[in-house]
Write a structure and sequence with these properties.
The protein is mostly helical. It contains nine helices and no strands.
């Protein structure tokens, strides 16, 4: 393995149980943080999307320019994808009036299109091949689409499907469990399972975030979006500091 490949791979964390714990917490933070800006601050979905898009682009630029793996930078970029995904999905679903079904369908097409172009361009969509700026760009664009799709799916399941936040959390939790079972007990493509899990953790985080901050009469706990976001951020920081995340050097 050449030096450039080692350097690029060192910016991708190992995909372990800790990775998925932090990922779910980050997606939940994305929901509460996105809602805090667009709703609690009354800035609206369009302005919120604009703000978080700038943060997302800045974080991706810094991540690609970094010469090695920095856990805080990587997870800042992940959180940026979840917050922009939250406000972008809400803008598409609600402000543009295309609804959850329309938004989910559009975002699924964008996600599959991103994966298709990535595969046609570089030959693989495995995170173990993220070894160049081009691959990193595909990686982060695909993640952003997956986070936005997850938000729309979470809202669709909890709202339109009538399952509520708790019911939707059970559904997505069960789907994630089935992905884990396939990982341990079948020979299903690890790349396929990774992206399936990556997409599914987002709606799980979205409905948990909504459950925390939505009004009681809407099925939530009516917690402060600011305090919930702060608590989640502290939890993520503690996980990163205590468990000393390592960079990835093997295929996932």
């Amino acid at each position: 393995m050449n030096t450039s490949t080692k350097t690029a791979l060192s910016k991708v964390p190992e995909v372990t149980i800790l990775f998925w714990i932090i990922k779910i917490a980050a997606t939940t933070l994305g929901e509460t943080g996105g809602d805090a800006v667009s709703m609690s601050m009354h800035l609206g979905y369009l302005i919120g999307t604009g703000i978080f898009s700038v943060v997302f682009l800045a974080a991706v630029f810094a991540q690609i320019k970094a010469k090695e793996f920095y856990p805080s930078l990587y997870w800042t970029t992940i959180i940026a994808t979840t917050t922009v995904g939250t406000t972008l999905a809400d803008f598409a679903d609600r402000s543009l009036g295309i609804g959850y079904a329309g938004g989910s369908t559009l975002l699924l097409v964008l996600l599959l299109g991103s994966l298709f172009i990535w595969h046609r361009t570089l030959g693989s969509v495995s995170v173990s091949t993220v070894n160049s700026p081009t691959a990193e760009m595909f990686y982060w664009v695909t993640i952003m689409f997956s986070q936005t799709l997850g938000t729309a799916l979470g809202d669709w399941t909890a709202g339109t499907a009538g399952l509520g936040y708790a019911g939707a959390a059970v559904v997505f939790g069960a789907l994630l469990a089935s992905v884990a079972a396939a990982y341990y007990w079948t020979k299903t493509s690890r790349t396929l399972l990774f992206w399936a899990a990556f997409v599914l953790t987002r709606p799980l985080g979205a409905v948990v975030g909504d459950f925390l901050d939505k009004p009681l009469n809407a099925g939530g706990l009516a917690l402060s979006r600011y305090s919930a976001s702060a608590a989640l951020l502290v939890f993520i920081m503690v996980c990163i500091l205590l468990f000393n995340e390592r960079a990835s050097s093997t295929a996932h």
